[in-house]
Amino acid sequence: MEIKTWIFKNIHLLISLSIVVPTAIIYGSPSVLPEHLDIQVNSIDLSNMLRAIMCLYLGISFVWIFGIWKTDYWKIATQLNVLFMLTLATGRALSMIIDGFPTGGYIFGIIAELVLGLFSIYQLKKYAIQ
């Protein structure tokens, strides 16, 4: 596969990785969170939950890496990207309705998740039969 085609086929996964991996690391670093987000980690339970989320994000990222690296995994990686991005966006939208609007980073998050989730559906339709 030529490099241009490879990039276009995997761009949604590459973008997702470039956003999700740093986010995972920030979520798993309680001392860094106040610098980037309006979150104060003041209990072991919250720290535990955030590290679990970090590992979940990293685990999902590994599936995306496999999908980029091994074409046999591309479809499942893209389907997981759709599920991951659109369920996060749904959760954020629900929170906005129930809890109110968050800080700008989370507003960017819902927009990016919607765009990546919908773009991944497009990618599935375009490349899944190849």
UniProtKB/TrEMBL annotation:
Q: Which Pfam families match?
A: DUF4345 (PF14248)
Q: Where are the transmembrane segments?
A: 12-29, 49-68, 80-98, 104-124
- Keywords recorded for this protein, A-Z: Membrane, Transmembrane, Transmembrane helix
Q: Which InterPro entries match?
A: DUF4345 (IPR025597)
Protein name from the UniProt record? DUF4345 domain-containing protein
UniProt organism field: Maribacter chungangensis
